[in-house]
TrEMBL record:
Cofactor dependence: Mg(2+)
Cofactor details (free text): Binds 2 magnesium ions per subunit.
Protein name, per record: Isoprenyl transferase
UniProt function note: Catalyzes the condensation of isopentenyl diphosphate (IPP) with allylic pyrophosphates generating different type of terpenoids.
Length: 238
């Protein structure tokens, strides 16, 4: 058997928690809770097999439009996740990072503080980077980047004609993160839902009907195997 190539950066749209719960006659928030369990296993497995960056879509800028009860349940889950991670921060080796509009007034300040604390406490670790897309929207990210650029131009720190792809990328939340090699979406939806539009231009896409709480390390292996069968050309001819 030939050695398989592990994608350097895997991005995941963790979708289908609601349908998973519905199928089982459970409340949607129970689906989200089980989704967190699935995520925990995927994080340690990805770290173990040598993935350098794992980015997961946890909450989009559009997800605020969901019923208040569901949004509150999700915030509570993130809060609990952060508490748990902070408690075992000395044992784990991955680096935690959030992409998205962390400074929006919609985000409870206690939650923001915990995110910043966990980012800080894990910044010198040597394991995988775990990026959580939280209050993330690709268009929102691009607009926030444009505003920062315009400010730098106004302040004389930057000239408009200096702009290029690399410089633009450095204004995004994903600064210093290589573009994803593989993007996985669970639940059978074939769309990107405002996830990393700038960064996914040459990413390989893998869609599965598996609902996120059922997504196991075996499912991740299947996606990586499929990735290994793809021929990436980046616009070049063979
Ligand atoms: C994904 O599961 C989790 C979040 C968007 C927070 P959904 O809640 O979207 O589940 P479905 O798509 O309704 O099944
Ligand atoms: C995308 O899923 C966002 C997350 C997984 C966090 P959605 O369930 O919000 O996407 P749509 O509404 O089906 O496009
Ligand atoms: Mg969904």
């Amino acid at each position: 058997m030939t050695e398989r190539n592990i994608p350097r950066h895997i991005a995941i749209i963790m979708d289908g928690n609601g349908r998973w719960a519905k199928e089982k006659g459970l409340p949607r928030n129970e689906g989200h809770r089980r989704g967190t369990k699935a995520l925990e296993k995927i994080i340690s497995y990805a770290d173990k097999i040598g993935v350098e960056h794992l980015t997961v879509y946890a909450f989009s800028t559009e997800n605020w439009k969901r019923p208040q009860e569901e949004v509150e349940g999700l915030m509570k889950l993130f809060d609990r996740y952060l508490d748990k991670e902070l408690k075992k921060v000395d044992k784990d080796n991955h680096r935690f990072n959030v992409i998205g509009d962390l400074y929006s007034n919609d985000i409870p300040s206690k939650l923001r503080e915990k995110i910043l604390l966990l980012q800080n406490k894990t910044k010198d670790k040597s394991g995988m980077y775990f990026h959580m897309a939280f209050n993330y929207g690709g268009r929102d990210e691009i607009l926030r980047a444009c505003k920062k650029i315009m400010k730098d131009v106004e302040e004389g720190k930057l000239k408009g004609d200096e702009m290029n792809e690399d410089l633009f990328s450095s204004y995004l939340d994903t600064i210093n993160i290589p573009d994803p090699d593989l993007m996985i979406r669970t639940s059978g939806e074939i769309r990107t839902s405002n996830f990393l539009p700038w960064q996914l231009t040459y990413t390989e896409f893998y869609f599965t009907s598996c609902l996120w709480p059922d997504f196991t390390t075996k499912e991740l292996d299947k996606a990586i195997d499929e990735f290994n069968s793809r021929k990436r050309r980046f616009g070049k001819s063979e």
